[in-house]
Amino acid sequence: MGPARATVLDVTPYDKIFENNKLWAEEQLRTDPDYFTKLSVSQQPDFLYIGCSDSRVPANQIMGLAPGDVFVHRNVANLVNNVDLNVMSVINYAVRQLDVKHIIVCGHYGCGGVRAAMQPKDLGILNPWLRNIRDVYRFHKQELDGIADETKRYERLVELNVLEQSINIIKTAAVQKSYLARGFPIVHSWVFDLRNGILQDLKLDFVQTLHSIQEVYDLTKE
């Protein structure tokens, strides 16, 4: 008996990845024969982007920037948890080694993590992670409970979560010391709208926020 005929189920998206990769690499070389030579030398990004793991929000593409321009960290609901060694290591490396000038926390409307944190439901291993978002709700409960429309309340929690995670970055020693010594990085709060592809700047006042938290979170003594 000969080999079984391939079915449609045998041809998965995974099988196309390496073909797509070769086509992409060839296209880059057609545009710039030295593309990979330059890319392999080093990275000097001006931006650290901390975003959600959601597959619909690709950092470089929505910012219109090329590989090498953005240092990226992503997790469920774009959290900056002070006991998460992953995100803390990324921030420290980006600030102290890469000298990034801007740190962006970017959430997005339609975030499943934020939605899950609004539900009275046991989500197993996700419970301690999403508790960070529930805490954001607790901090802003009066404002959020005053929003009658559930969708608008959900979208406002997305925004407030981004702002709180941005403040968590400002609390770090790496950011405080670098800003004091060099005037950067500046922390920004963004939300991406999946419905139209537009980024919204929440206009976080970095300097005012830094000054407002220094009484408790000052790590520089200056």
TrEMBL record:
One of its GO terms (biological process) is carbon utilization. Belongs to the beta-class carbonic anhydrase family. GO terms for molecular function: carbonate dehydratase activity; zinc ion binding. Binds 1 zinc ion per subunit. InterPro entries: Carbonic_anhydrase, Carbonic_anhydrase_CS, Carbonic_anhydrase_sf. Keywords: Lyase, Metal-binding, Zinc. SMART domains: Pro_CA (SM00947). Gene3D superfamilies: Carbonic anhydrase. Zn(2+) binds at C52, D54, H108, C111. It comes from Corallococcus exiguus. Its cofactor is Zn(2+). It catalyses: hydrogencarbonate + H(+) = CO2 + H2O. The lineage of its organism: Bacteria, Pseudomonadati, Myxococcota, Myxococcia, Myxococcales. GO terms for cellular component: cytoplasm. Its EC number is 4.2.1.1. This is Carbonic anhydrase 2.
